[in-house]
Structure prediction request, 396 residues.
Amino acid sequence: MNDDDKFFAWLDGELAPPEAAEMEAKVAADPKLQRLAEQHRALGAQLRGTFDPIAAAPVPERLQAALRPPAQVIDFAAAKRARSMPALAQWTAMAATLAIGIFVGTRAPQGTDTPVEAQGGKLYAAAAVNQALDSQLASAPAGDVRIGLTYRDQAGEICRTFTARAASGLACRSGGRWQMKGLFAAPEGQGTSYRMAAGMDPNLAALVGSTMAGEPFDAAAETAAKAKDWK
Amino acid sequence: MNPLSPFEDQLASLLPRLRRFAHGLSRDPADADDLTQATIERALRSKAQWEPGTRLDSWCYRIMRNLWIDTARSRSRKAVHEAPEEEGLNVGEDPREAIEATVDLKRVMAAMTRLPDEQRDVVALILVEGFGYREVSEMLGLPIGTVSSRLVRGRTALLAMVGES
Prediction:
């Protein structure tokens, strides 16, 4: 520790008693150090005076609400334990996928901005959804696509949930692409609200619960997985 | 009603402090509340990773700081040249507006926003949030000497910007 660091450690009460006493004496004998200590104590008081009122202010309702909505707190361990109807969940997922696949196929001509494309009887992410799955972190500000959870499934592949305008879904890595495992249309009237991303679609939650091995990635694991191209 | 579980309950009691830290990190009050919300959501999702008996506050601060780094990175890629205007501090739902802000306080706030990120988080954690050097070193995964030297540089720069008072 150099003298500067030691002086400030003393000021912050971080020095052990013998060293603290030594520094105390040194400061007492040096008007310049005394002045510096005063200035920095005043700075600390100013900093606290600036930021403490924020902690004393009422917490905005939306932040308190983030703790409350039942749909938002998904207990994945419980979801896994409650795998009494995995077949039903899978079936629902497939049915929804099929429905959206047909929807996409009939509404938009091939080669345009459809978020899903079919190949060899499988559905893969395309366009904005594919791009988001490839490069977006869960902490990114909400754009057209919002990423939710990232985790490894029981086959060891990385899976990610996402919310696009009117649907949420799950895609997992397969042959270097994002294969759609499920797509669920948003309930009527919620199609344009991104806030719905906070409360995961129950079908999607069930699908996640039945495929996830271990825990969802935290920010560091997510970033690391991205750097390794989701392998 | 829907009573909160002990984990959510503890998280709720941390909200005011987490919010203060978010305002210390972020230049923009709306961003600070977004960051706080993202932190709560992440903490709830990662609940199983928190070891009961360890400090929930350090764990949440770490989540917030990591989320902030991610956001700050993606933002700086987008807007390298958009330097924040000090006047911008008064925009939006700013709890700080409710304060009878003295010139000194405004100056401190503006000076904070001009610190490099890696000095600002250490300054906020130690001088505002009241954590010890060791706690911050564990929280940020940095050697204690690095924490201490960033703190010295940060507070020295702050003092120079704020001027004598």
Summary: The longest helix of chain A spans residues 31-56. The radius of gyration of chain A is 26 Å. Chain A touches chain B through 51 residues (CB under 8 Å). The mean pLDDT of chain A is 76.
